[in-house]
Amino acid sequence: MDSLALICTIALLGGGIYWFVCILGPAEQKGKRAVDLSGGSISAEKVQDKLQSVLVLLPPPQGDRKDRERDGRRPHLRRPRRQNPRRRCCGVGGPMRAIAAHSRAKVVGITINEYQVNRAKIHNKKAGLDALCEVVCGNFLEMPFDDNSFDGAYSIEATCHAPKLEEVYAEVYRVLKPGALYVSYEWVTTDKFNGDDAEHVEVIQGIERGDALPGLRSYNEIAETARKVGFEVVREKDLASPPAEPWWTRLKMGRISYWRNHIVITVLAALGIAPKGTVDVHEMLFKTADYLTRGGDSGIFSPMHMILCRQTSRSIP
């Protein structure tokens, strides 16, 4: 009888944990189920992968454009393919692999983080793209590349980490060939941001702190900085503005979802399955997601301020 009671108790407890973790899900937003996510393990490498940023330099591939890019949020793939396939990039290479697979162009990445270099090489090989994708360890403020050596460039949520935007833009300008295009996604405060509003300031400072930013720049500084180093600004647009769908909704997390994740992570950390510090990282990511959601919902922050520039061959001031 005691054995039967024990079995029933264990079954009930297991069912409750399964319901709490796998069925209940996020209270406000449903994304992929846990079983549908790739790489089902928690490790220090996973944490590092999520906290890294990307700078990518890339020239358009050869050939004529046959299919128009349907996603307006990927302007770097909408330009005509004219030049020889030689380009550069960074991070652990997510965008690099996507673009190489799509265009069959060679992409070379630059990142200051040696860990990222090693991880990117592993991912490139697993994807069967190591012949097209190469990663170089270096500083994007002092790129180890020759002048006028690239046919095009793009950066995705990376240059916002530069202490001075002018310095990284000047380096991009230097390594581009005359007439080459550069497109970038910048994190910015929008025209709705009010520096005298305490809540606005709290949200922006929370984003800066949680995402290790030297300081968010105003949207109107981006084009001005690009022109200052010699670029011609071809186009500038906030791709997060309507009619684009809200980008922040998937970041929303209800209290039930938060406590579900917190309990699971705490247990995994206590058992030594999750690396030390995972609970602290979870807390930081939760707070940062909240600030990002508030910034997006209020319209004072955009992570998708797109600027398209052309190298004009004018000397850099």
Automatic annotation (TrEMBL):
This is Methyltransferase. Residues 75-87 have a biased composition (Basic residues). Pathway: Steroid biosynthesis; sterol biosynthesis. Belongs to the class I-like SAM-binding methyltransferase superfamily. Erg6/SMT family. Its EC number is 2.1.1.-. It comes from Actinidia rufa. SUPFAM superfamilies: S-adenosyl-L-methionine-dependent methyltransferases. Residues 90-312 form the SAM-dependent methyltransferase Erg6/SMT-type domain. Residues 58-87 are annotated as: Disordered. GO terms for molecular function: S-adenosylmethionine-dependent methyltransferase activity. Residues 63-74 have a biased composition (Basic and acidic residues). Keywords: Lipid biosynthesis, Lipid metabolism, Methyltransferase, S-adenosyl-L-methionine, Steroid biosynthesis, Steroid metabolism, Sterol biosynthesis, Sterol metabolism, Transferase. The lineage of its organism: Eukaryota, Viridiplantae, Streptophyta, Embryophyta, Tracheophyta. CDD domains: AdoMet_MTases (cd02440). It is an enzyme of class 2 (transferase).
